[in-house]
Write a structure and sequence with these properties.
This protein is an alpha/beta fold. Helices cover 28% and strands 22% of the residues. The strands form 2 sheets. A 6-stranded mixed beta sheet has the order 4-3-5-1-6-7. Strands 2-8 form a two-stranded antiparallel ribbon. Strand 3, helix 2 and strand 4 form a beta-alpha-beta unit. The protein is globular and about 50 Å long.
Amino acid sequence: MGNAVTVHLIRHEKTKANLERKYIGWTNESIYIQTANCQVPIHTKDVFGSDLKRCIETAQLYFPEAKYHPFFQLRELHFGDFEMKTYDELKDNPAYRQWIDSPEKAAPPNGESFVSFKERILNCFHQIVSCGGEYVFVVHGGVIRVILSKFQKEKSFQDVIAQHRMIYTLCWDDIESLKEGRECNQLLEAPIMVNENL
C-alpha cells in the first residue's frame, strides 16, 4: 500500500487575462480574487507548482497552512509573440493558424515548441513524484493537459480539458507503473467550492 501513488492536479484561479480569454504563458499576473472562502476536499502539508504568482497565490488561497514548492519547469507554455493576445487578434495570422492546426509541429514565433514544453513538464513531474505517496500540484491548464494526456492512453492533449476550480486525481497501484508511463488505474474529478462574497 505504501507504494501506491495519488496525484492531485489543480489549475490556478483565473487572472484578468484568463477572463479576457488571452493566451497567458509566462506573464506573471496575479489571480483575480485575492480573498475567498474555499472548500478543498483534500488536505496536504506540501504543494508543488509553478513559480508564477497565479499558482503561488492560488495555493495560498486553497492551502493556507501548506508549504509551497515552486518550480520554473512547471510553467505554462511560452506563447512567444502570441502572449497576452486573444483568438480574435490572432485568427488571421498565418503563423497562428499553422500553430493551431499542428501544435506538435509548429511553435509560436519566439515561443516554445510543444515537444520542449511536454519534455520540460514530464521531466519535472517525475523528479517530484519519485516514490509512493500523495502529491498536490497547483499548476497551469496546459501543464494539467500534458500530464492527463500522458497517463490516459486514449486521450490526446487536444482532447483534454483542464477547468478552473476542479481537482483531477490520478491513482496508480505502485510507483513503478507511473515511472514506466503506464495509464493510471483511476481518474477522479471533484469540484472546489469557492465563495467570493466574504
